[in-house]
Amino acid sequence: MTFFRAENLAIQFGGLRAVDGVSFEVREGEVYSIIGPNGAGKTTVFNLISRIYDPSAGRVVFQERDITGVPPHRIAGLGIARTFQNIELFQNSTVLQNLLLGRHEHRRSNLFSEMLFLPHVRRMEVAHREKVEEVIEFLGLQHHRESRVSGLPYGIAKVVELGRALCTEPKLLLLDEPSSGLNPEESEDMAFWIEDIQKDLGITVLMVEHNMSLVAEVSDRVLAMNDGRVLAEGTPQEVQQHEAVIKAYLGG
Amino acid sequence: MLQFVQLVLNGSSIGCIYALVALGFVLIYKATEVVNFAQGELMMFGAFFAYTLITLFGFSYWIGAAGAILGMMAFGYLLDRVVLRPVLGQPAFAMIMLTIGIGYVSRSVAGLVPGWGTAAYAIDTPFSAEGLPLLTTAETSLVISEQNLSIIGATVLFCAVLFAFFRYTRIGVAMQATSQNQLAAYYMGIPVKSVFSLIWAISAGVAAAAGVLLAPITLIDTNMGFIGLKAFPAAVLGGFGSIPGAIVGGLTIGIIESLAGFYLPQGFKDIAAYIVLLAVLVLRPEGLFGQATRKKV
Question: What's the whole-model pTM score?
Answer without folding.
Answer: 0.87
